[in-house]
Specification:
The chain is α+β, with helices and mostly antiparallel strands and 188 residues long. The protein has 6 helices and 10 strands. Strand 5, helix 3 and strand 6 form a beta-alpha-beta unit.
Length: 188
């Protein structure tokens, strides 16, 4: 249905993404980035969940390192990223279908400050009707920096012990038939 949905360049932001690349160097770089989109990267397999703390849209802290005990699907996304927005309904449905067996955390990479950013992301989320996952805020881009994620969405999967299994750059249809097989993988 959705297959691989592509990705957004996190560094250039919404306005710059609309501008066409005019140099051959930029075009070559774009082709290299596109080659990575939709690829499952297992080169970080076994890496531990970083000890980063974010906040939810109500200002409550969310500490990643405390999320061990069951598998975790960590999704970096932004409201301005079309592939992110396209995959979020399937990610929300996956969280609903897996229930307590899988933690799904969506970390917004939108820039902004305080209440204005919280309201923007919260309004976006409520407007889409997502019920099974809730967004966290990362206005400083700590997660993108930690994961060297220049393209959104980026999704990282951890096993129950907090060890990375794989990461995916670009959108994905989480309702697809390969999802259960991907989630059955472990780091060990």
């Amino acid at each position: 249905m959705l297959a691989v949905l592509g990705g957004c360049d996190r560094q250039s932001g919404q306005n710059a993404q609309q501008a066409a690349s005019s140099s051959l160097t930029d075009a070559a770089s774009d082709k290299a980035d596109e080659a990575q989109i939709g690829t499952f990267d297992r080169s970080h397999k076994g890496s531990h969940l970083p000890d980063l703390t974010f906040t939810d849209t109500d200002g409550h802290p969310l500490r990643l390192a405390a999320l061990t005990g069951k598998p975790l699907l960590l999704n970096l996304w932004a409201t301005w990223c079309a592939p992110c927005v396209a995959e979020l309904p399937t990610l929300d449905a996956l969280a609903g279908a897996k229930g307590a067996g899988l933690q799904v955390v969506a970390i917004s990479q939108d820039l902004g400050e305080g209440d204005a950013l919280s309201a923007k992301v919260k309004d976006f989320w409520q407007g889409k009707g997502f019920r099974h996952i809730h967004p966290a805020l990362d206005p400083q881009g700590e997660a993108a920096s930690q994961y060297q994620a220049a393209t959104l969405p980026t999704t990282i999967y951890y096993d129950a012990q907090g060890r990375e299994v794989w990461r995916l750059t670009g959108g994905h249809d989480w309702s697809g038939k390969d999802t259960d097989k991907l989630l059955a993988e472990t780091a060990g």
